[in-house]
Amino acid sequence: MSKMSSLENKEKRVLTVRIDTELDEILSDIKEKKGITKAILIRNYLEMAKYIILDNHSIKSLSNRDFIVIKRSFFKKLIQKSEELEEIALGEKLGRFINDIATIKGKEFDIEYKLDLCQHLGFFVKFFDSEGYLLITKKFGPKKFVEAFIWYIIKNKEFNTQFIDSEIEKSNKIRGQYKKDINPLEISNSHYAFGFAKMEK
User: Fold this and answer.
1) What pairing do the DSSP bridges indicate for beta strands 66-67 and 136-137?
2) What tens digit of pLDDT does each residue of 150-173 get?
3) Which of 6, 18, 137, 193 can pair with 185 through a Cys bridge, CB separation 3.0 to 4.6 Å?
4) Domain span at residue 19?
5) Nearest Cα to 92, choosing from 144, 156, 140, 149?
6) What does the DSSP assignment read for the chain?
7) Residue 125, pLDDT above cutoff 90
8) What does the alpha-carbon distance between residue 153 and residue 100 come to, in Å, rounded to a whole number?
9) How far apart are CA 184 and CA 100, in angstroms?
10) Spatial separation of the C-alpha atoms in residues 169 and 177, rounded to whole Å
């Protein structure tokens, strides 16, 4: 047996769990709808333990904060009703939440882990263009919210609150700094992209 195959065997475990008939039928129904095997479906659920904690009566983050499940479209509508400065504040708060979890897991500066966390928590799919720019679906939220959130998880620092449309339009200095720091890019009509959010290949 090769060293690599031996390592792979050590990394895998067999888990046997007894479940009731009703739950088995629910899993069977879901796997049929998804077009996957039951083993893959169950493995997908178990993989979520890397990103959330399930108690008997609640869902929690890895930082032990309570979660609720809401529709993404409803979440976006709530944020869109906010002023730009409020959008920025909300983006920073959510970014701080992601950074806190990454820090707990010893991955404070691991951008890939943070983006994986965003994907598995349902924020957006981790997606890059051919040049390595992160593309964030516009369904995630309004622009200033997304800018502040992505800036916070990548740069680990606060977003410049002068970078609101009214200030950018009236000040050449702020507009120049905004283009230098954020550099919004028109790569896709359905995605946001920023110059600072480019991953090395």
Assistant:
1) unpaired
2) 999 999 999 999 999 999 999 999
3) 193
4) 3-50
5) 149
6) --HHHHHHHHH---------HHHHHHHHHHHHHHTS-HHHHHHHHHHGGGTEEE-SS-EEETTS-EE----HHHHHHHHHTS-HHHHHHHHHHHHHHHHHHHHHTT-TT-HHHHHHHHHHTTS----B-TT-BB-EEGGG--HHHHHHHHHHHHH-S---TT-SHHHHHH-HHHHHHHHHHT-B--SBTTEE-BTT-B---
7) yes
8) 10
9) 26
10) 12
Residues 46 and 76 reside in one and the same domain: no
> 53-71, pLDDT tens digit by residue?
888 788 888 888 888 888 8
- The pTM assigned to this predicted structure is 0.83
Q: Among residues of the chain, what percentage have pLDDT more than 90?
A: 68
Clarify whether residues 14 and 109 are in a common domain.
no
Q: Are 60 and 52 in contact, with CB atoms under 8 Å apart?
A: yes
Domain annotation covers residue 56? no
My answer on whether 29 and 116 are in the same domain is no
